[in-house]
Specification:
The complex is a heterodimer of chains A (553) and B (758).
Chain A: H1 6-10, H2 13-43, E1 51-56, E2 62-76, H3 77-81, E3 91-98, H4 102-105, E4 109-113, E5 117-121, E6 127-131, E7 136-146, E8 149-150, H5 157-203, H6 208-239, E9 242-247, E10 253-257, E11 261-265, H7 272-288, E12 291-292, E13 297-298, H8 301-332, H9 337-349, H10 354-377, H11 392-417, H12 420-428, H13 433-462, H14 465-470, H15 497-507, H16 511-552
Antiparallel strand pairs in A: 1-2, 1-5, 2-3, 3-4, 6-7, 6-11, 7-8, 7-9, 9-10, 12-13
Helix pairs in contact in A: 2-16, 5-6, 8-11, 8-13, 10-11, 11-13, 12-13, 13-16, 15-16
Chain B: H1 2-6, H2 17-59, E1 67-75, E2 84-89, E3 95-100, E4 104-109, E5 115-120, E6 129-134, E7 141-146, E8 150-161, E9 168-174, E10 182-183, E11 193-199, E12 202-208, E13 213-223, E14 230-240, E15 245-250, E16 256-261, E17 265-270, E18 278-284, E19 292-297, E20 304-308, E21 313-320, E22 326-334, E23 341-346, E24 352-357, E25 361-366, E26 371-377, E27 383-388, E28 394-399, E29 403-410, H3 418-422, E30 437-438, E31 449-450, H4 453-484, H5 487-502, H6 505-522, H7 524-545, H8 550-555, H9 561-587, H10 592-600, H11 609-633, H12 637-645, H13 650-679, H14 682-687, H15 705-712, H16 721-757
Antiparallel strand pairs in B: 1-29, 2-3, 3-4, 4-5, 6-7, 7-8, 8-9, 8-10, 11-12, 12-13, 13-14, 15-16, 16-17, 17-18, 19-20, 20-21, 21-22, 23-24, 24-25, 25-26, 27-28, 28-29, 30-31
Helix pairs in contact in B: 2-16, 4-11, 4-13, 5-11, 6-11, 7-9, 11-13, 12-13, 13-16, 15-16
Classes of the chains: A alpha+beta (553), B alpha+beta (758).
Amino acid sequence: MNLSLRPWLASGAPYIWLNAGAVSISLIMVVGLIALIAVRGLAHFWPADVLAFEYLQQDGSLTHIIGEIVDQESTTESHITHHADQDAARTFRRYLIKTGNRDHLGLDFRWVDQSGMQERHYPDELMVVERREWGNLYGYLAGIKMDGQDISSKENHWTQLQQLIDHSGEIFDEIRHIEKHRIGAINYQMEELRIRKKGLILKGDNDPDKHQQITEQRNNLQEQYNDLTVQLKSLYQSLNQYSFIARIADGKELTVPLSRVVRAYRPNSMSVFQKIRFYFIKLWEFVSDEPREANTEGGIFPAIFGTVLMVMIMAVIVTPFGVVAAVYLHEYAKQGVMTRIIRIAVNNLAGVPSIVYGVFGLGFFVYFLGGSIDQLFFPEKLPAPTFGTPGLMWASITLAILTVPVVIVATEEGLSRVPRAIREGSLALGATKAETLWRTVLPMTASAMITGLILAIARAAGEVAPLMLVGVVKLAPTLPLDANYPFLHLDRKFMHLGFHIYDVGFQSPNVEAARPLVYATALLLVLIIIILNLTAIRIRNRLREKYRAAEQH
Amino acid sequence: MSELTSRPSLLPDFNAPAAVSYRRWRGIKDRAARHLMALGGISVLIAIILIAFYLLYVVLPMFRPAHIEVLVQYDLPGNPEESTVYYAIEEQHEIGLRASESGDLYFFKTAEGTLIKSVNLFEAHQDDITAFSAGDPTQGLLAFATGKGTVLLVQHRYRVTYPNDVRLITPAVEYPLENKPVVMDVNKNPIRLIAAQAEDNQVSIAAAVADVIIRLSTFSKETSLISDETTVQRVDATITMENPVIKMVMDIEQRELYVADNRGNISYFDISNKTAPRLVQKVHAVPDGTVITSLEFLAGGISILVGDSRGTITQWFPVRDQENNYTLQNIRNFRSLKAPVVTMAPDYSRKGFTAIDKQGYIGIYHTTAHRTVKKQRISEEPLTFVAVDPRGNAMLVEDSSQQLQFWQVENEHPEISWRSIWGKVWYESRQQPEYIWQSSSASNDFEPKFSLTPLAFGTLKAALYAMLFSIPLAILGAIYTAYFMNARMRAYVKPTIEMMGALPTVILGFLAGLWLAPFIEKNLPGVLMLMLLLPVTMLISAYLWQFLPKRMRQYIPEGWEAAILIPIILLAGVAAIALGRPVENLFFAGNMPLWLTNVVGINFDQRNSLVVGIAMGFAVIPTIFSISEDAIYGVPKQLTTGSLALGATPWQTMMGVVLLTASPGIFSAIMIGFGRAVGETMIVVMATGNTAIMDMNIFQGFRALSANIAVEMPESEVSSTHYRILFLAGLVLFAATFLFNTIAEIVRQRLRTKYSNL
């Protein structure tokens, strides 16, 4: 063996390997990042076993802890205390336990030192209760009450509890339907009437008939509202009837009204099959439900809905303008210095920071255009702004401007790939330029346009910074699309997946509890964007092959 | 043949009316399409240009000079025989106040000069008035001193009501102490000079009862909790000066007293202890031979303005040194007036003021910006009085011909100048000139600190660390992928890395802030070791590779090195992190960030530039990688084959031929990557602490321009200075990235033509 380094260095092999290493690191980073999000995001919905153990605290006392292990690390004393004293370098392992019962303990999570953990149990009877407020409850079922009376049947009070939870869940859904949809609709109509009345006054229209009509309608609505409140009252009564008693880790017994319970389950006694079923139920809840508890629990449906709707409106705006601009640039404009400059400018705009578009959108669309629209068309709503405040329409238009270069570039590329022969053939047969474009060139460019559109959508779906200025909110009370005329409310603010990640991850009061949901949201967003991009890449590849074939014939 | 031609054609007749009109219709459609396309295309392009111009349109008003315009001129309201001592305007600038030397208060309509109300304060007392002063304008306090050693304090107040939905402002006079002069000098010496302030429940009066003797009295009101009775406590003190006093001002909180004497000295007294005033410092404020002609507080009661007989106005405030001692320092000078300064009127809530001089010039200034917003000669006669309204929209000017002019002032953004945005500025209560960004505060008379320098610094710092991380990885990776990598692997690798670029940055920022930052804090030695270990591991694996049995090496063809390295790098990573723990315990007392702070003295933030560098590097790698890969891959094959045929190794060919040819492309890739790093927002918002510090320390955070916009824009008031300066930040980002991208694009286009020529 020749161990001399010189020929090896001279061959250039080490440098090539270093270069290869750079690729490997990049690949590891991409794949690792997606894997990290996927693992953390998907693991959240799995019903983990609940642990019960005695814990020897630092002051020497024993305490009983119930909870799920959510994280573990090996660390040193100094990392925790931030003091450089003698014990600082003592290394130990610790676990993060989700103990729940925030109303009782003050915190959801607790770090425990491995050395202090005594014998661990996984009792079958341990239950986890998901509540509408205060997060999860961990404990044992100790009884069921109706109007304060103990009604638990000793043998199968767990089944009894499940039935009662299902029952109260139905009532709760009904209440929510009434409060949100029916009363919401009444409130909406009342507001419309108020504005109509104000509009009449502003116009100086004193026609008593019109005013009378409004008053009648208002009284009518008020009656409906009163009926609904009566109905709600009885529903609430039957909802608040039941409660159950839970014995928590320190032996205390808590009474929990069933109206606050989403579901209760006993993970330690569930079979793998049951757990899988539970997993998918939770996953479905995540994508289809509304958020609870300042977005840290529940689902993200409004955010998905808002993102999709915003992107769709944006697509409707950006496609015609992008395509028309590209066709003009490529087919009609005289090629020269000017078109070169314009091309450079369009290319550059793709590189202008998105926040700049946000600033422009806020200043020009929201305050300038929106303010003027309000003055002209909605004077009766002033001083409350209609379009003079960030909202869905301005967000869509801002993102349309942001992504228009993407569509222009992609369409132009598609146009330049259409073989000259096809164009000339069409013209030679007597077609006008417009006909040539419409009948032959544009259909051949369709997939390029779609590629551009998909890339634009992918970019828009992931963009957050400009939206923070032009329309996104952390919690929108109503969706921008509902059953109230005119159904699509372009002036409303909306929720957005990307902003949801930022808001819940960084502005939430309970970041630790919200973190798994943020990972799950991030995973969803990444999946959407990867799928969109892969589709665009596939379309583009197919397109290239098609043209290669067309050119060869 | 003739039979053939005469046979009716299958095609419709070319000149048939239907065909003609159809052709015409098609022609119309064609032209319509052409115009429509042109219209659509050009409007999109105009929209694009509009962005730049709209940003400019919002930014420009900040740099415009103030505009003043005289609305009306009238005779002095009230008795013109009595000379004026003071003017004031209320907030809506509908009503003006003129105080005269005999103690008459005339409230008048500013629009026409008609009197609405007059109050004679001294009707009952019959004393002659020897001195007058006004307190802080926000309190509306006026102090009249008499020849018998007494002082009367009044406040002018305005009540706004809306009878029949029309605004009605009613002026009123109140007495902070009681409707009776207080005795300042028991010997009944005439008071020569006075300064007074009233705020909350405390009133202080300083009165010069002789050339060199100042009596200081403080009245504190206390309301008894039980009986609702108010008792007033009085504390007295006396100050003796060396030289005769000519000007005297007290701050609104009644802690400081500044006294100017006839030799051009200013004595700075600490009067926070009301029984024992302390002379802190005496400074010679103007050169010999110059007289102090005006002395005023700037809004907020920290700075004083000294106007002198040369027309120069100097700003002073106490500066704290290392030993916590305050010394009065000359901060900045305004020299635009050439004649003696007559008087100055400070703005109510801004750090600006208006000055008038003996030649009829008026000057509007702002101290923070060190800017003369306006200078104009408005009268041939010397000007005698000036007053501004609380919002800075109007002013009253009296000249020596007993005419009062009512002016409209447009002065929305005096606090902005090139220097206050980019240069070091000496802000009030700071020890030296600094770059500070601090746009808002709870306090009303807060001095906004609009220096974009620390933000631009933060942006560049972020971009720099991101480039340090991404350039080696992206360019080395591009070289390998374009030139050495197996084609089959390339088909997967390139889209995968390009996919990195499509990942939303909010996700990168979230991971950087919530996962990477704590991870690095916990495993700092491991992470640092990893950076050293990785290249070493690669080289060792490369070295060992050649000693593997030939059969094994043949099993994996050339161009798959990157795949082989993946498990090795993963192992090295795990090893480095695992090793990090014992290393940290052994050398860094179990906590390296703490050790850095305590022993080395380098501050460590959890969300620091290293985290941002990695996260933003991640976002930039695909951009640089993709463009430089294209450039390298596009190098014409005849060049490389030629080089190889002449006996160069692949690596020599790479370095000598390929890289050289592709270098403009790589340069433009770096430029575009830099542009992306500069404008990136979500990563810097989420992965740094967002504190605007100027420090290159990799373990500390920063505040970037883009993050600053995202955080502050939603809260800024439309058309305020803050709003416009955020637009300026946006414009700076726009211009910077546009510049980088244009350079890159031009370089790239040149390269493309070069390749096609080769």
